[in-house]
Amino acid sequence: MEQLEHGEWHGNTDGMPWMHRMLKNSFKYLNLRFVYLGMAIFAVPFYMVFSHQGYISMYRYFRRRRGCGVCRSFLNVYRNHYRFGQVILDRFATYAGEQFHFDLEGYDRFQELSRGSQGFIILSCHVGNYELAGYAFRAEKRYNALIYSGEAKEVMENRNRILSKNNIRMIPVSADMSHIYVMNEALSEGEILSIPADRIFGSSKYVECSFMGCPARFPLGPFAMALQRGLPTLAIFVMKTAARRYKVYIREITATAPPSGNRQARATCLAQAFAREVESVLDEYPEQWFNYYDFWNHDR
């Protein structure tokens, strides 16, 4: 599994393979908590000062969506940046061979579906550390993860090395749209398909849902594909709970309204069910929301 655009903080670091190698190699000699401490003292304040878009969007999230006061919103922005830094460091720690413990909730349903002959869809989002679940457990059938390429070559190589051991294939988005053929083929073969479901990437094809008390746009594609094929749909959230511990929530997404009406209306019902699950997880882990732009700004 992968966490789309859970890149190195809020920017692209394709030109810094040396940094990726340094992070990976540091875990061979340094305790994980020590690396966290250095990040908390140096890296987090740096990015809060110089990454204005990420800082402002997170401040608005805590202030407007979660109703925090000014001082608490500022403190929560720091906690959010620190937690995101841990998520990134945990990825590189995994590349270096570090082990994390995972508490699983709802895993029985995942196993049941993975043993069946029918394919199914998993919806991912920028909450927690979704990629790490791909390193934690292996499905009975091949797992295909749609990704947006653009990260450094070394990161992609490390991903491939570990994910391929767990029968996981990455499907990069391609300019000629050939990835759609690969996705459909995977589902036709009864495999698992993971799709990001919380960013429209400038597309005009979206559905609008109520999310944290305000209208927000979610991409139409993942929900339309699930409905068109009549496939089971899961959401997986991998939430950090301690230095070496995560809790994995696996939840089935079903629309509350009858499957009638046009495609847009049915997709909106399914998207709204997904939005409610995201809300539920964020109520428990509010600092693990990692969409570093104004998610509720319809100009984006």
Care to describe what's here?
With 300 residues, the chain is an alpha/beta fold. The chain has helices spanning 17-26, 32-50, 52-65, 70-95, 107-115, 130-136, 153-165, 178-188, 220-229, 263-284, and strands at residues 101-105, 120-124, 143-147, 168-172, 192-196, 206-211, 214-219, 233-242, 245-252. It has a 7-stranded mixed beta sheet, sandwiched between helices. Helix 2 packs across helix 4 (70-95) and helix 3 crosses helix 4. The two termini are 26 Å apart. 38% of the residues are buried.
Largest sheet: 7 strands, mixed
Low-confidence runs (pLDDT<50, min 5 residues)?
A: 1-16
Q: How large, in whole angstroms, is the Cα Rg? A: 19 Å
**Widest sheet: strand order?**
1-9-8-2-5-3-4
Question: SSE order, as H and E?
Answer: HHHHEHEHEHEHEEEHEEH
| Class from secondary-structure proportions | alpha/beta
**Count of discrete alpha- or pi-helical segments spanning 4 or more residues:** 10
Number of beta strands: 9
Arithmetic mean of pLDDT: 85
- Could you tell me the strand content as a percent range? 15-25%
Helix percentage: 40-55%
Outline, from the CA principal axes?
globular
- Give the distance, in angstroms, between the N- and C-terminal Cα atoms: 26 Å
Record keyword descriptors for this entry:
47% helix; 300 residues; two-stranded antiparallel sheet; 10 helices; alpha/beta
List the helices and strands and how they pair.
Layout: H1 17-26, H2 32-50, H3 52-65, H4 70-95, E1 101-105, H5 107-115, E2 120-124, H6 130-136, E3 143-147, H7 153-165, E4 168-172, H8 178-188, E5 192-196, E6 206-211, E7 214-219, H9 220-229, E8 233-242, E9 245-252, H10 263-284
